[in-house]
């Protein structure tokens, strides 16, 4: 029966690793957001 908990632990750990990789990829590949107000050029 202990192999069930071992498998569950491995599955949860793999899920955490995949989700962390997804968040890191999204963090470094996201485009910067457009400003809400238009930027006026300085003379």
Q: How would the blueprint of this fold be written?
A:
Blueprint: H1 2-29
Distance between the termini: 75 Å
Please work out how many helical segments DSSP would assign: 1
String of helices and strands: H
**Number of extended strands:** 0
The SS-based structural class is mainly alpha
Residues in β-strands, percent: under 5%
Assembly type of the shown chains? single chain
Q: What is the residue-averaged pLDDT?
A: 86
Radius of gyration: 21 Å
**In terms of per-residue confidence, which ranges show pLDDT below 50 for 5 or more consecutive residues?**
none
Largest β-sheet summary: none
Assign an overall shape. Answer: rod-shaped
Which percent bin holds the helix content?
Answer: 55-70%
């Amino acid at each position: 029966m202990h192999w069930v908990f071992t498998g569950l632990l491995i599955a949860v750990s793999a899920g955490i690793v995949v989700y962390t990789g997804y968040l890191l990829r999204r963090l470094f590949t996201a485009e910067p957001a457009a400003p809400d107000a238009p930027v006026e050029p300085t003379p």
